[in-house]
Amino acid sequence: MKRKLVVLSLLAVGAVSLLAFNFFDAPKADRMPNIVLVYIDDMGFGDLGRTGAVDYTTPNFDDMASKGMFLSQYYTPQAVCTASRAGLLTGCYPNRLGFAGATDHSAKTGINADEETIAELLKAKGYATAAYGKWHLGFQKQFLPLQHGFDEYFGIPYSNDMWPNHPLNKNYYPPLPLIEGNETIATNPDQSQFTTWFTERTMGFIKKNKDKPFFVYLAHPMPHVPLFVSDKFKGKSKQGLYGDVIMELDWSIGQLRKTLKEQGLAENTLFIVTSDNGPWLTYGNHAGSSGGFREGKGTTFEGGHRVPFIAEWPGVIPAGVVSNNLSAGIDVLPTIVEATGAKLPVKRIDGVSLLANLKGDLSVKPRDAFYFYYRRNNLEAVRQGTWKLVFPHPGRTNEGFEPGNDGQPGRANENFNHPGGLYDLRRDPGERYNVMFDYPEVMAELTKTAEKARKDLGDDLTGHPGENRRPLGRVSQ
What we know:
Shape: globular
Helix content: 25-40%
CATH class of the largest domain: Alpha Beta
CATH topology of the largest domain: Alkaline Phosphatase, subunit A
Structural class: alpha/beta
Largest sheet: 10 strands, mixed
Strand content: 15-25%
Number of helices: 10
Number of domains: 2
Strand order of the largest sheet: 8-7-6-5-9-1-10-11-2-12
Number of strands: 20
Radius of gyration: 23 Å
Distance between the termini: 86 Å
């Protein structure tokens, strides 16, 4: 009888222990995933070690890609600062929301309060949210991050060159504000500390919120000119200041990954790193590499739009996979929504979820086409499958012009009349060989795709206003 009682007691203790294990551990395992989204300013496709960087190394970027997934056919929403960020955070083509170009201190517009950002969608799910670094969706209080779903903000309201030391417009810009929450706490701050400050703030936010789901958006101002680097990386590369800056950004990625691992959060965190547009080629040795793609920032050629994208989520995203499926920055919001179980915005968006691809099913083709808009609302190109149709348009070209050096820009033609053409990106990613006369059936198909875009979003080049564009936010009177 005693032996039976002992056995029963041991079984009871085991059951209680199992219940205790399930009670205390299951919520952590089943908790909604954390999201870390890093947006790097002006980093080109060729700026990483794995994509051809020379005379400096990026071990953390490269290790992240080896343990996660690299998207080789990823396009930023638009090849310029403000519009790109609008597309990333709302899941919409920027011109649907009225965004174009890069706004500055004189702008009276910004993100409309009716648009829902990633932060607002996740905040509704109980996430802690924070934004650090460059914002650039309007600098007045009504447009700042705290009014658009973020609990915390520390950073600059627009590009770091919009200050009195601009190389071409020295008397145009006021002192650069450094903002905490909604208040300016300093002007013309020490830019050599930007990468360190914003990384440390992100690390602190992760540690502070380790026991609940969080979303942190780290928008590094570098390597947008003017370039600055802290003493810990000054002179470390063999490529000069630009290489030093990229090495410090690589350090930042390493610090964040280390923090997630030390806090026991790595396996429950979707970590995404990408860039807002391609390199600003006119700045020469203070600009990055397009990786051999045509042109750079400020153009709808591949060098302006095709940028690195790395996603890591241990146990969910298979290690070391390269996806060659078409994808875009407007797809980040719906991907995060599906990963977290949040609700999509009430208003129409343009993005599609990439989660099936990120989980390893590359047979799924979530995106078939992408529209390349620039200037106020010019549809300059469309891509469908591996084909890209470029329409005749005025635009920037750096070709034939000597770039500047050491922080001074060279010349570029901002109103070059590009003749357009059809390019097979599978064989010609450099967009050098126009084959429009060889593939009339492809021309016809992509022209139909363009007409859909013009009807929906408009096109200034052909005089289409668009049926479904929405207004920008405007300064309250």
